[in-house]
Amino acid sequence: MHFVPHFRFRVFGYNFEGAITRFYRARIKVENPVVDLDGDEMTRIIWDKIKSTLIFPFIDVDCKYFDLGLPNRDRTNDQVTIEGAEAIKKYNVGIKCATITPDEQRVKEFSLKKMWLSPNGTIRNILGGTVFREPILCTNIPRHVPGWTKPIVIGRHAHGDQYKATDMLIKEDGVLELVFTPKLSRVEERVKVFEFTGGGIGMAMYNTDESIYGFARSCFEYALNKKWPLYLSTKNTILKRYDGRFKDIFQEVYDKDYQKKFEDNKIWYEHRLIDDMVAQALKSDGGFVWACKNYDGDVQSDIIAQGYGSLGLMTSVLMCPDGKTIEAEAAHGTVTRHYREHQKGLPTSTNPIASIFAWTRGLEHRGKLDGNNSLIRFCSNLEKACIDTVESGLQFLSSALWYLQFIRILMIRLVVLLLVPIGTLLLHCKCILKQVVGIN
């Protein structure tokens, strides 16, 4: 894929068009491909602008493109999602735009053949692994938990438990039992759950050793990569066998494969009760990975996001148990409300940062796999440009700061970081805002 940049403006006489053209001629060469999974609505529009403005003018990378926009998923009977996931398995790096998971209203809106499953769920089922959510820290974003000065990363075991449970309404007196019928011995195991003397509810849920082992390895690999301690939280005092199995498998994997690696990096692993862990997290300054079961991770990831200030400043990375294969994406949705404004021809103030970080985290991982330090440095500089822009106050000078203006400012900062150190002084002048984005 080749994109020719077309920026035509100067700042205090400096030719940024020429600077980008020079970069385009000597772009950072990426040896192996990445998988580009396109999405829906406002994030799809921003996704394209990020690629054409901040990625392809600087990076020479072979992108294996899959259109996961809802119309194309419907057209291909969702086969495109499966093919995209298989491509991630092959090339080890996927970078995904936010997508629509259709409900009844969306089925009518898009005239869909059926209510297709969540593409994230489909990809997770094919790749396995664990979803890790990490906040993007900016000093001028107010935090509801001021003591969190370092990131807390939530690793959610997005498999089984309540999300694959079978539940039922009980309408009369009777006994609820849990029955397991083995394939080989044919001797049933039958456990009495409760004897009802009136109406009620019942539920059965499960998980597998294979999935829990994969969860454990993904968490240990991620913590090693970040060089942060890892905590697992369960309620094994109540669910002695169910949650106890998580605790035992994590300890087994740690003792066998990771204890020495953790000690060499001066980090540690520890199991804690979920209620104790919540209290400890609130008192801490951050800087750790928190492994959660499915429901706990669903709840705690949103609490952590709000504690740091915004879901729009959260990265999301699916890491597979091999520690080699990842899929990076923004933690938010497709921003439908802004898309409706865009359809009317109105400018929107959509925050592109989490989508930009999906690209930087994916490309950074590609750089680590390939030993490409230039690519890793580029990703670091692009993330710095994002954070510096927010911390300089430009993001908040106008509530309607158009996303295109914001991306253009990022591009200038990126050029400055990569090519023109002296220009850093200029970027703090209000005159630049007048020339570049027209803010008075």
UniProtKB/TrEMBL annotation:
Residues binding D-threo-isocitrate are: T101, S118, P119, N120, G121, T122, I123, R124, R133, R156
Q: Which Pfam families match?
A: Iso_dh
Q: How is the cofactor bound?
A: Binds 1 Mg(2+) or Mn(2+) ion per subunit.
- Site Critical for catalysis: give positions: Y163, K235
Keywords for the protein's UniProt record, in alphabetical order: Glyoxylate bypass, Magnesium, Manganese, Membrane, Metal-binding, NADP, Oxidoreductase, Transmembrane, Transmembrane helix, Tricarboxylic acid cycle
This protein's record includes keyword Lipoprotein: no
Q: Does this UniProt record's set of keywords contain Membrane?
A: yes
* A GO CC term assigned to this protein in UniProt: mitochondrion
**Which cofactors is this protein said to need?**
Mg(2+); Mn(2+)
Known EC number(s)?
Answer: 1.1.1.42
The record's listing under SUPFAM superfamilies reads: Isocitrate/Isopropylmalate dehydrogenase-like
Binding-site positions, Mn(2+): D275, D298
Q: Name one GO molecular function term.
A: magnesium ion binding
Alphabetical GO biological process terms? glyoxylate cycle; isocitrate metabolic process; NADP+ metabolic process; tricarboxylic acid cycle
Report the family membership: Belongs to the isocitrate and isopropylmalate dehydrogenases family.
* Name assigned to this protein: Isocitrate dehydrogenase [NADP]
